[in-house]
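re: ur question from yesterday

yeah so i grabbed the chain u mentioned. its 201 aa long if i counted rite. heres the sequnce exactly as i have it in my notes:
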Amino acid sequence: MLFFNADNGFLEGITRGYKAGILTTAQYINLAQCETLEDLRLQLSSTDYGSFLQNEPSPLATTTIAEKAREKLVAEFIYLRANASRPLATFLDYITYGYMIDNVILLITGTLHERDTHELLERCHPLGMFDTIAALCVATNVQELFNTVIVETPLAPYFEKCLSANDLDELNIEIIRNTLYKAYLEDFYAYCLSLDSVTAE
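ran it thru and got these C-alpha cells back, copy pasting raw so excuse formatting
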C-alpha cells in the first residue's frame, strides 16, 4: 500500500475521473426524451461527452455519433495503457486481445474470399490494431496469412496452440474464432488468478 500511489495513483485518479464522467440516471432520462439527433447533441453538450460532437456539421448521423464515441473510448484506453506499468499494462493488453482476434479473423475471411485486405483494415476495431497488422495484408493466400499470424502478432501463442493452416477455411472460421477466444480467455483467467486476491476475484 505504501507504494500504491507512486505506481498507480495517477491512473486511479484518471480512471475515477472517467467514472465520474459517465452519464447519470437523470442525464440518461433526458437523452431518452430527445426527438432528434440535434436534441441529443444539445443534451450531451453539458456532459463530459459534449466535446466529441461539437465540431461535427449538421445534420448529425448516428454513424457519426458511434464513430466519435468509439474514438473517445479508444483514445482514453490508449492513454491509460501508455501510462500503465506492469501488471496493469499486461491486464490492459489482455483486454485488447479479443479485438485482435476479431480483426485477424476478419482478415482471414477476407483472404479466403479474395477481398482487398487493405479495405478490410478500415473495418478493423481500433483496440484490436497492433504494429504488424499491416504485414497481414501482404499475404495473398491463407498459408502465407497463417505463417504471418504465427510470427508477427501477439496472438501467436493461441494460433500455435490451437490451429494449423489446414484449419483455415470458410467452414471452420467460427470454430477457429471460438477456439482462439477459449484459449485467450483461459490465459487471461490464469493471469488474473496470478495477481492479488482482489483482481483474482
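noticed a couple things. The first helix runs from residue 4 to 20. also The radius of gyration is 20 Å.
anyway ttyl
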